[in-house]
């Protein structure tokens, strides 16, 4: 199977807060990150979003406050979802 990814993934585990206007806030952990997006681990109760929805996300537990970024839900797997960073 050919890898069609734009950017290579890097394993990266941090806690991230995801905010959605209707579904509220959820705290999840990342699995990996790339220049174009991030994959987050979800449990069944957190799987409320649909492909194409936009959420905001912010890395937690850093010594300084991380920026809030907008991300679009682009795919789901059995253990989580892929989010693509939205560019200005």
Automatic annotation (TrEMBL):
SUPFAM superfamilies: PilZ domain-like (SSF141371). It comes from the Bacteria. GO terms for molecular function: cyclic-di-GMP binding. Residues 3-86 form the PilZ domain. InterPro entries: PilZ_domain. This is PilZ domain-containing protein. It comes from Pseudomonas mangrovi.
